[in-house]
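sorry for the late reply, my laptop died twice this morning and i had to redo everyting from scratch. anyway the thing you sent over, i finally got around to it. pasting the sequence first so we're on the same page, its 343 residues, then the predicted structure underneath. double check i copied it right bc i was rushing
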Amino acid sequence: MLGVDFGSSTIKAVAVSGNPESLSIDAWAEIATPKGSIRDFQLQDIDRISQAVKQLLRMLPNKYKYAATAVNGSSVITKITQVAGNINQTDFENIVMMEAEQLIPFPLDEVSLDFEVLGPNITDTSRNDVLICAARSQSIASATSVFNDCDLSVKVVDVGMHALTRAFVTLEKSLQTTDANKFCAIVDIGELSLSFGIIFQGELIYSRLQDFGGSSLTRSLATFYNLPQEEAENVKLKGALSSYTDIDVVNSYINQLTQHIKRNIQLFCSSSGNRTVDILMLSGGGSLIPGLRQQLALQLEIDVRHPDPAVLYQHKQVENFGHGAKYMTALGLALRSFTPCQI
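ok and here's the structure:
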């Protein structure tokens, strides 16, 4: 399946082949998201987005039949509940639906619902932990409509943070072995938002979304250097920040980002009883600022890593390919090709 990530800045696609033990990225590409077509993570202008996706597909070397995409933001609810493990499948599903009515703040006739049994509860092994996910059906219908226009069949609609977790765990094998019992914070920096999560034993156990992203740096550059917004964005994206050193605009932004990450870590620790996190992983286009990883490691005093999906790209002859951090969610979606649907 082709993994397609609808971002507020760009739409990204990744295709993978092989198997989880021997994986390669066959192709990836991105195209600018039409201005104003995505608001609050919701696809608003289906026609313009469809045209953009068609252009994106023409940039890929092969044709694809199937797609996996994700929903994000306030339209998605994920909860973990406990259900007795010794009941039949029909009763089990009925109990999950009753639990969902209590946990999900939307009318159930307006949502698409799915669940997965995670395994026995740690404190009561007679009960299973069950992950319940719900998204507004309209969000899923909008994405499906885009892919139908592009002659692609949607096989999977995932949750963005779960796809991101899958990519991190695939790239950083230590999260399944030597670092499995460590608390790993993941930070995905988009144009308008910062996604924060905690991985433990290879699973996402905590997540938050904040309204802070790379656009904050763009605005600061535009204001200080009296640049048009689009030119400031190009300065940031094309790595020309070193030419703009009259004031420490970049370090100011990094300091703000550090404070947001610190606050998220504190909130997780206070809610979980843990003292700190052991590892921090970066992704997203906003993580490509030169020196960001080093600055965060210095200020947070933890192990900060920046996994690069480009190491899996099979066409090594391509020069100036750059770091692939912004493709992490799309990679996680493409990896669903190797994950059977649970129900």
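The mean pLDDT is 88.
thats about all i looked at so far, will dig more tmrw
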